Amino acid sequence: MTAPVFLVDEVSAGTVVLDGPEGRHAVSVRRLNPGEPVVLTDGAGRGAFGTVVSVEGKSTLYVAVDEVREEPAPRPRITVVQALPKGDRGELAVETMTETGVDAIVPWAASRCITQWKGERGVKSLGKWRATAREAGKQSRRLRFPEVAELHSTRQVAALLGGAEFAAVLHEEGSAPLARASLPEEGSVVLVVGPEGGVSPEELAAFGEAGAGAFRLGPSVLRTSTAGTAGVALLLGRSGRWG
């Protein structure tokens, strides 16, 4: 297996101390011992590859860093605008999209969303999405974790689409398959995933005015919590990032 990944505030060379919650997880949960390989990352593309030198107590270990690597920003950058699903399906969507390779996730308060992020609930829900992205980033051995933006309105999503080199809305009545879309080699690709009740005609029109086309994934209709992951996988393969 590849070395486990742990999140640190700053990546540096030499001997590094891993403590706090990450150190506790490494010692008490992963039960790492001296001589085992680890990777320390800031989640922004920088990683330190090294070996555990010693372990102290239940939450501290020392890592001798052998190499520091800088991972370039991916091209094109893939963002998924995810309408708020019901229950814990939002965290499921964030987890699987992160493991697949998405670069950014934008929560969207679509008009047909059953779930609403308001007040303290909204703050807590956004925190869960961001924590899920961090944990999934570590689990999938990424050095660059996806950004999870603040909750967006339809107007804000339209502005985001307007600035993308390629913008698409997944829609079961889309006139063209996403698998045949012409993708840019650089810049930003933004994909919109609607809620359980679908993207409203008004939202579809607003996104169309911003330059986003309506595309379908295939003959079946996916749940909102899985459509983004399928779309990201398709885009990663077609853009050459999985090549």
TrEMBL record:
Name assigned to this protein: Ribosomal RNA small subunit methyltransferase E
UniProt-annotated location(s): Cytoplasm
Alphabetized NCBIfam families for the sequence: PRK11713.2-3, RsmE family RNA methyltransferase
GO molecular function: rRNA (uridine-N3-)-methyltransferase activity
Chain ranges passing through the membrane: none
Ribosomal RNA small subunit methyltransferase E PUA-like domain: residues covered: 18-63
InterPro entries: Alpha/beta_knot_MTases (IPR029028), PUA-like_sf (IPR015947), RsmE (IPR006700), RsmE_MTase_dom (IPR046886), RsmE_PUA-like (IPR046887), tRNA_m1G_MTases_N (IPR029026)
Reactions catalysed: uridine(1498) in 16S rRNA + S-adenosyl-L-methionine = N(3)-methyluridine(1498) in 16S rRNA + S-adenosyl-L-homocysteine + H(+)
Domain Ribosomal RNA small subunit methyltransferase E methyltransferase, first and last residues per copy: 75-235
Signal peptide: none
Top-rank lineage group of the source organism: Bacteria
Gene Ontology annotations for the cellular component aspect, listed alphabetically: cytoplasm
Entry's Gene Ontology BP terms: rRNA base methylation
